[in-house]
Structure formats: C-alpha cells, structure tokens
UniProtKB/TrEMBL annotation:
One of its GO terms (molecular function) is magnesium ion binding. It catalyses: apo-[ACP] + CoA = holo-[ACP] + adenosine 3',5'-bisphosphate + H(+). Its main location: cytoplasm. This is Holo-[acyl-carrier-protein] synthase. It is found in: Cytoplasm. GO terms for cellular component: cytoplasm. Transfers the 4'-phosphopantetheine moiety from coenzyme A to a Ser of acyl-carrier-protein. Its cofactor is Mg(2+). Mg(2+) binds at D8, E58. Keywords: Cytoplasm, Fatty acid biosynthesis, Fatty acid metabolism, Lipid biosynthesis, Lipid metabolism, Magnesium, Metal-binding, Transferase. It comes from Ligilactobacillus murinus. Transmembrane segments: none annotated. It is an enzyme of class 2 (transferase).
Length: 121
C-alpha cells in the first residue's frame, strides 16, 4: 500500500549561490557519508549533487506529509548510490514501517525528484 508520494523541483543555480554564500550549509543538509561523496566531486558537480540531495530530502518530507522541520530533518535522511549509480535511501525515519523509492533527474538548470513510500507488509 502506498503511504505517500512527494516531489520537488529545484533550480541548481539557486543552490550553487546558496553554497557560495553559506559554505557550511552542506553540513546542515548532507550526512557524513553524503558529504564524503560531495567532497570528491568537481565544483560543478558539487552544486548539482547538493541540489539533488536537497530536492530529494524535500520530496521525502512531502511524502511523509510533514515537510522539513520538527518531525523530519535533512540529516535524518541519507541517500547514497548503488554500484549502478542509482540513488537509494540508506537511512530514513520510517525505514521500519515502509520502503522508500526515489528518482532524481537533472537538466542543465533544474533537478526534479520523486519519492514513493510503500508500507512494509
């Protein structure tokens, strides 16, 4: 049974500007494992990566129905990539209750994400 669906769209340049103004924002959005991946990327890819993770975590919080805030924080959610490069939730607040599926798509200017939460039988 589907428990929730969330989506989000972000402007990559907006996130890149945020990164320039507030370099420590990465530690507010990315978990230590995500930050390790981020730091290995070129500056161009860093902006895309951060925008993707930001958008994905926003989409997750919308699927939960709470948004980012008191119930769910950015650091409660961890998204890594498998050996084929596909993103997956390695940790999320409802992992004992549901499976979380994610899709992240980039264009030159935007990143769009979709999250589906499915109840564990």
């Amino acid at each position: 049974m589907i428990l929730g669906i969330g989506n989000d769209l972000e402007c990559i340049d907006r996130v890149k500007q945020m990164l320039v103004k507030l370099p420590k924002i990465t530690t507010k959005i990315l978990t230590p494992a995500e930050l390790t991946v981020f730091l290995e990327l070129s500056p161009k890819r860093q902006g895309e990566f951060l925008a993707g993770r930001f958008s994905a975590k926003e989409a997750y919080s919308k699927a939960v129905g709470t948004g980012i805030g008191q119930t769910v924080s950015f650091l409660d959610i961890e998204i890594l990539n498998d050996t084929l490069g596909r993103p997956y939730f390695s940790h999320h607040p409802l992992e004992d209750e549901c499976h979380a599926f994610i899709s992240i798509s980039h264009t030159k200017e935007h990143v769009a994400t979709m999250v589906v939460l499915e109840k564990i039988k």
